[in-house]
């Protein structure tokens, strides 16, 4: 059974950085494209970034320049580097992976940015 588990969230101050991790089991090679979404309180879940098995990346325009996505298949982990955090980045961040034509999602990790 494939599974994704996020970690690395927390309470930070505006301007700081965070690196979120997404641990994949049995391995990240189980997933084709992987992605990050986020959901702020009272809002819909929205796309943030994606990465393919060939390490091609896409970052949503709303966060381009501050967010970076990467994956380390040797560690079975995908990352989301977030720099210059803003209060509006506060949300639950979810990682997902495409497995056998279906998206699998983790339980999410909370990021809270104080001003």
Written description of the protein model:
This protein is mostly beta strands and about 120 residues long. Helices cover about 0% and strands about 55% of the residues.
Distance between the termini: 41 Å
Low-pLDDT parts are none
Overall geometry: globular
Listing every helix as H and every strand as E from the N terminus to the C terminus, the arrangement reads: EEEEEEEEEEE
Strand % is over 45%
Overall pLDDT score: 96
Largest sheet, described in full? 7 strands, mixed
Q: Structural class of the helices, strands and pairings?
A: mainly beta
Beta strand count? 11
Can you describe this structure in just a few lines?
Helix content is 0%, strand content 56%.
Task: Explain the layout of strands and helices.
Elements (H helix, E strand, L loop, with lengths): L2 E5 L2 E4 L4 E8 L8 E6 L5 E7 L5 E3 L7 E6 L4 E6 L8 E9 L2 E4 L3 E6 L1
Key terms:
seven-stranded mixed β-sheet, globular, four-stranded antiparallel β-sheet, mainly beta, 115 residues, 0% helix
């Amino acid at each position: 059974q494939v599974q994704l588990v996020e970690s690395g969230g927390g309470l930070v101050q505006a301007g700081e950085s965070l690196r979120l991790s997404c641990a994949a089991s049995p391995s990240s090679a189980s997933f084709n494209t992987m992605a990050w979404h986020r959901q702020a309180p009272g809002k819909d879940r929205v796309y943030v970034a994606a990465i393919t098995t060939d390490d091609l990346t896409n970052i949503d325009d709303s966060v381009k320049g501050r967010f970076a996505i990467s994956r380390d298949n040797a560690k079975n982990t995908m990352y989301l580097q977030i720099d210059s955090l803003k209060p509006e980045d506060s949300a639950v961040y979810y990682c997902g992976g495409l497995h056998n034509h279906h998206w699998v999602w983790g339980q999410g990790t909370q990021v809270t940015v104080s001003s």
